[in-house]
Amino acid sequence: MSTIGGWVPYSGLEAVVLAVVLLIIGLVFAYAGFRLKSPVGVKRPGRGVAVFMVLIWVLSIPTFYAAYLAYIVQLVNQYHAGAISQQVGQAAPSNPITPVTILSAVATFIIIALISRRSGLKVALGSAFVGAAAAPMIFELPFDLIIINRTVAIPPSPILYRLLFFLPLIIIEISTMSLLTLSPLTRVSRYTLWSLAGVFFVFAIWAGLGFTYPINPLYTLLNDVSKILCFVTSITLFLKPKTLPAMPKSGFTSDNPLKPEEPAVRTQVMCVGTKT
Q1: CB of 195 within 8 A of CB of 232?
Q2: For residue 155, cis peptide bond before it (omega within 30 degrees of 0)
Q3: Cβ count within 10 A of residue 148
Q4: Is 97 helix (H, G, I), strand (E, B) or coil?
Q5: CB of 157 within 8 A of CB of 32?
């Protein structure tokens, strides 16, 4: 079977199994959203861990491009132009997805910055950056896992060259999403889980149709909707809870919320009067 736009579509039982798996994942996220009563804060890493995370993220980008160039060189060496066209099959149309991604990223940056503005300029811009950067990665990680074994087979070892391309890309995706923990405003709410559920529900519909490259309006719509839902997911991570849980009457310290404050010791002075 020839590839369409870069990967071989699913068909038959494979498409049904993929759709069912994605539907189950979506239901799990939806159920978790109903079970989650209040937002859950994300623990921020220490300074050393944060520097290490940023370093991995920075290094993963040139690593991917080096692997990508090696992948392309091997592809060109194995197939001349006619053979590549035969492998790819129907030529991919002009990319209809990139404009949606760029507009969604800009909108997400502005919305998160506005939501976070009361926390200060530094926190607002930092949160907006990691939120806008992580959103497309929320889409790309499951997407890449779905198509990783459906791309063009490059001899002598198709698996090796697929890993050469996708492993650095997956590292970029995971390291970018990990940057969300650097913001003090990041918290997971039921809206986050419901948005993720929506992403996998759309993926399930797309899988039932073969998970084909967006070469027509329907496939393009499914791609766009699932990607926009990923940006919505990122925005929900920075929504402020309407109410905060009430503190216990015994009181808790801000440094250690699990340890009650020691009550102040009062010294009672009893005055004994003497009758005269």
Answers
A1: yes
A2: no
A3: 17
A4: coil
A5: no
Cα–Cα distance measured from residue 178 to residue 109, given in angstroms and rounded to the nearest whole number: 17
Q: How far apart are CA 9 and CA 90, in angstroms?
A: 12
Measure the CA–CA gap between 1 and 75, rounded to whole angstroms.
18
Query: pLDDT tens across 10-46, in order?
Result: 999 999 999 999 999 999 999 999 999 899 988 899 9
pLDDT at position 153: 84
What is the tens place of the pLDDT at every residue in 170-196?
999 999 999 999 999 999 999 999 999
Residues 73 and 55: their CA atoms lie apart, in Å, by: 28
Backbone phi, psi, residue 49, to 5°: -65, -40
Distance, CA of 111 to chain centre: 17
The arithmetic mean of pLDDT across residues 49-55, rounded, is 95
Of the chain, the end-to-end C-alpha distance in Å amounts to: 114
Q: Is the CB of residue 127 less than 8 Å from the CB of residue 183? A: yes
Q: Which structure tokens are listed for 161?
A: 């060259």
- With a CB cutoff of 8 Å and minimum separation 6, the contacts of 61 are 172
Q: Cα separations (Å) of 40 from 4, 43, 72, 259? A: 42, 9, 43, 20
CA angle 162–20–217, rounded 5-degree value: 70
Beta strand 187-188 with 40-41: parallel, antiparallel or unpaired?
A: antiparallel
Give Rg (Cα) of the chain. Answer: 26
Give the chain's mean pLDDT: 84
